[in-house]
Design goal:
The N and C termini lie far apart (about 95 Å). The chain is built from 28 helices and 29 strands. The strands form six sheets. Strands 1, 2, 5, 6, 7, 8, 9, 10, 14 and 15 form a ten-stranded mixed beta sheet that branches. It has a six-stranded parallel beta sheet with strand order 18-17-16-19-20-21, with helices on both faces. It has a four-stranded antiparallel beta sheet with strand order 22-23-27-26, with no helix packed on it. The chain has four domains: about 20-95, no CATH class; about 100-415 and about 715-720, 3-Layer(aba) Sandwich (Rossmann fold); about 420-700, Rossmann fold (3-Layer(aba) Sandwich), CATH 3.40.50; about 750-855, Immunoglobulin-like (Sandwich). Helix 2 runs antiparallel to helix 6, helix 10 (about 250-270) packs across helix 11 and helix 12 (about 305-315) packs antiparallel against helix 28 (about 700-745). By secondary structure, it is of the alpha/beta class. It is about 40% helix and about 20% strand.
């Protein structure tokens, strides 16, 4: 309105800032997630416009499109800023061209890249295409692959809505909001050909063709490629395939997994990338094996069994889920709908296809994607030692003749990308008191004894500073929540008084699933109330985390904790922070004093939040499950309960909650509030330093990825090379060998020459065992090993078995052989033993991968 005249706007103008010549390389930094783990790069974008940096969710690409021209011009004329900018570019260029890397120093071969497939990648909050721990681990895996300079390419999906943003209403109930990602203003670019034409792939899904465009994400030295179906080539339904992470029904899930697996392979082919290894990170991408099978059968003209052997040779499967209900299972009718064309195309029967993933659990025939992943891979790993034991029992049905502790599942314990999760001021502390090259010492435990050089007073001051920054961030989120919910003014004004750096702060932040037991600490509310209102000083519990949208039980736990936080005696003592994300996580793992973790063992595969806390000097207080079962050393934190597992959940919860209260009362609280003359808690700081010293050089992704390379990737590369040379000669030979073993296995037998059932010997004596082994015309002594399986008896079962290979002495008659071995128990007690035959071949990566063992009857 102008002097009573209404002016109609006919045109709108969007004016984009133009980068000054001096700052022309800013987009280069913004479009490489190297910035996310290098504080100097983050400082550049913060200094350009700190408020805009926060408003854009730390997205440097979006910041550069919205920043004022004046601020850019001022920065270009600011000597201090330009020095910082130059230093960042120097570091960036040096990183990309670094001649001395782990890979170059340890591996002589020039190898094709490892292809790493995952349904989610949590690289940074500016690219929200992840739900939680699996995605964050995948992001950290990529960062360390870059740091180690391993040839590596990652494959995923670009979700336009990603995972939900959490809000908490006035009753404490979780509300899920799906925000559309502005992919054109994220640190990623469309992949085009030399004519600047967009590259697309097509995938058959059921009876239709679905198209996907490709996006490239730069993560240091490596590339992550993402598929996106939201393009005009597709109908409305197919454009929604990549709308939400873990969204929709079973049909949408199988469509996503076909796109990720089959489409991911086709995408790499289109880009001219020939991987040396295919790493399936959880079962979502397992269908990649199908497209690889198609290639070998249709294009290389190989038989199905030979093609499968070659596909398996360099496929690696990592399982993360320790409970069967967490794995993707599809009805056979759904498999018929989406894959009947596939088995017809490659010339195999429906039965052959279904058998790859058949699960007859509870008497129903279903298709289990995890079983499919096991059957189309050659190497498999869990993500901690305890998880390996759990997974070996869970999936024993795949190798039914093999004792769980001997099946082919191995483990590589998860870690974290140190530079992504280390608080910036602790980074400076390490540099000042240890050395500037600490970043290349992350796999050298002895080096970290140097942490004792840091003065306690300085160490504690930095932690207090981290806590102050955490408080500022949490106040920001709480105010947003209360204002949105129209809470009373006094509550909003009181936020500034809720937190204190002198308070003992206990953090609990993770996914709210039933087995995580987030509400365990409230089992005896009156006792907890007394603890939180202790005479020692202020004590506070901070909770954050999301429940899956379909997990009503998890949502009720959140609501319960929120409502308790408003009860007398808990107000200001218990706080729930909504909208858990990577930014909140970074502040919590550096700013709290104790990291509480109390899942129901053994359901925690690994867990990495405690590792993130530990490297920042935050003390773990956790169940002996996942990584903590390996990481706890008796002086770097506290344990809840012991290794005993209860069948009665009520008893276990009573026992574990009592342990929490007792340790808080008798150990944690007194130690934290005990101060020296400089007001420094010396005993507490000693725990903090031990936490860093014992965890940082072991539970990091540099160690983890190097372990993947040496234990799994490299053997897979060598085996695949061996099986494919000379027109797949070795692959054909291996298939023939496996078939003859499988066909004749029921005909082999073993028996003791002596039928003696009981032996009485003295400690140190030997028992000589002779056995007759009956083989077949096809199975010869070189195809098998004969073994004594013995150990201490407990409840008539052999525990901690010892396996001794027997030697063949002579051929008794046609296909009948005499074997001999001896047992020498090292201690007194009751022992048992039996005999068995195991197939063996030089091209087996694990002695029991065939799943065949003939036990003496």
């Amino acid at each position: 309105m102008l002097y009573g005249v209404q002016v109609k706007i006919h045109f709108k103008i969007n004016v984009s800032p133009v980068l000054p010549e001096k700052l022309k390389r800013l987009p280069e930094l913004a479009n490489n997630f190297w910035f996310s783990w290098n504080p100097i790069a983050i400082s550049i974008f913060k200094k350009l416009d700190y408020r805009l940096w926060k408003q854009t969710n730390h997205n440097p690409v979006l910041l550069l499109t919205q920043i004022s021209q004046r601020k850019l011009e001022n920065a270009a004329q600011d000597a201090g800023f330009m020095k910082l900018y130059k230093d960042a570019l120097d570091d960036f260029d040096a990183y990309l061209s670094e001649p001395e890397t782990w890979y170059k120093n340890n591996i002589d071969d020039e190898l094709n890249p490892i292809a790493y497939f995952s349904a989610e990648f949590g690289v940074h909050e500016s690219m929200p295409i992840f739900a939680g721990g699996l995605g964050v681990l995948a992001g950290d895996h990529c960062k360390s692959a870059s740091d180690l300079n391993i040839p590596f390419v990652a494959v995923g999906l670009l979700y336009k809505e990603g995972y939900f943003v959490q809000q908490i209403d006035t009753t404490g109930y979780q509300i899920e909001n799906y925000e559309t990602n502005d992919v054109y203003n994220m640190p990623l670019t469309k992949v085009c050909d030399s004519n600047n034409q967009q590259i697309k792939i097509s995938v058959r899904i059921a009876q239709r063709i679905v198209y996907a465009q490709i996006w490239q994400v730069n993560i240091g030295r490596i590339k992550l490629y993402l598929l996106d179906t939201d393009i005009p080539d597709n109908n409305d339904a197919d454009r929604q395939i990549t709308a939400q992470l873990y969204g929709g029904d079973k049909e949408n899930r199988i469509c996503q997994e076909i796109l990720l697996g089959i489409g991911g392979v086709k995408m790499l082919q289109k880009l001219g990338i020939t991987p040396s290894v295919w790493h399936i990170n959880e079962g979502h991408s397992a269908f990649l094996g199908l497209e690889r099978l198609r290639h070998y059968i249709i294009e290389e003209k190989l038989d199905f069994d030979v093609a499968l052997e070659i596909v398996r040779a360099n496929s690696i499967f990592t399982t993360h889920t320790p409970v069967e209900a967490g794995h993707d299972i599809f009805t056979l009718s759904l498999i018929d709908k989406y894959f009947s064309h596939f088995w017809q195309e490659i010339g195999i029967s429906r039965e052959q296809f279904i058998q790859l993933g058949l699960d007859t659990n509870n008497g129903y025939e279903q298709f289990n994607l995890t079983i499919f992943a096991f059957n189309t891979s050659r190497q498999y790993n869990a993500v901690s030692k305890m998880h390996c034991e759990t997974s070996s029992k869970l999936w024993q049905k795949i190798w039914p003749s093999v004792p769980p502790e001997e099946n082919p599942i191995t483990y590589i314990t998860n870690g974290i990308h140190i530079r992504s999760w280390l608080y910036r001021e602790i980074d400076h502390l390490f540099t000042d008191y240890m050395s500037s090259n600490w970043k290349i010492k992350t796999m050298e435990p002895k080096y970290w004894n140097e942490i004792e050089k840091i003065p306690d007073e300085q160490f504690w001051r930095i932690h207090q500073y981290a806590k102050a920054q955490m408080i500022n961030e949490l106040q920001y989120y709480l105010k947003k929540q209360l204002l949105r919910n129209n809470e009373l003014v006094y509550k909003i004004n009181n936020i500034d008084k809720l937190f204190s750096t002198t308070c003992l702060t206990i953090g609990f932040a993770r996914r709210f699933a039933a087995y995580k037991r987030a509400d365990l600490i409230f089992r005896d509310k009156e006792r907890l109330k007394r603890i939180l209102n202790s005479d020692y000083g202020d004590i506070q519990l901070i909770f954050a985390g999301k429940a899956h949208p379909a997990d009503e039980f998890g949502k009720r736990i959140i609501q319960k904790i929120y409502q308790i936080s408003n009860e007398p005696g808990f107000v200001g003592k218990v706080i729930f922070i909504e909208g858990y994300n990577l930014n909140i996580a970074r502040h919590l793992i550096a700013g709290v004093d104790v990291w509480l973790n109390n899942p129901r063992a053994p359901m925690e595969a690994s867990g990495t939040s405690g590792q993130k806390a530990a490297v920042n000097g935050v003390i773990n207080f956790s169940i002996l499950d996942g990584w903590w079962n390996e990481g706890y050393n008796g002086k770097n934190g506290w344990i809840i309960g012991d290794s005993k597992l209860y069948n009665d959940y009520e008893r276990q919860d009573d026992s574990d909650s009592d342990t929490i209260y007792s340790i808080l009362e008798k150990e944690i609280i007194p130690v934290f509030f005990e101060r020296n003359e400089h007001n420094v808690p010396e005993k507490w700081v000693k725990l903090m330093k031990e936490s860093i010293r014992s965890v940082l050089p072991i539970y990091n992704t540099d160690r983890m990825v190097s372990e993947y390379f040496t234990k799994l990737y490299y053997p897979a590369i060598k085996l695949h090379q061996k099986l494919t040379v000379h027109n797949y000669q070795k692959a054909n030979e291996l298939v023939l060998w496996k078939n003859k073993i499988k066909n004749d296995w029921q005909s082999v037998s073993i028996k003791l020459q002596s039928a003696k059932k009981k032996y009485d010997i003295n400690c140190g004596d030997k028992i000589h065992v002779s056995a007759e082994v009956l083989l077949t015309e096809n199975i010869k002594p070189q195809d098998i090993k004969v073994e004594i399986y013995y150990g201490i008896l407990s409840n008539d079962k052999i525990i901690s078995p010892v396996i001794i290979e027997m030697n063949m002495l002579e051929k008794l008659s046609d296909n009948n052989y005499l074997y001999q071995g001896s047992i020498e128990p090292k201690d007194s007690g009751n022992y048992g033993f039996t005999l068995r035959i195991v197939p063996t071949h030089p091209d087996l990566l694990h002695k029991n991968e065939t799943g065949l063992i003939h036990w003496m009857k």
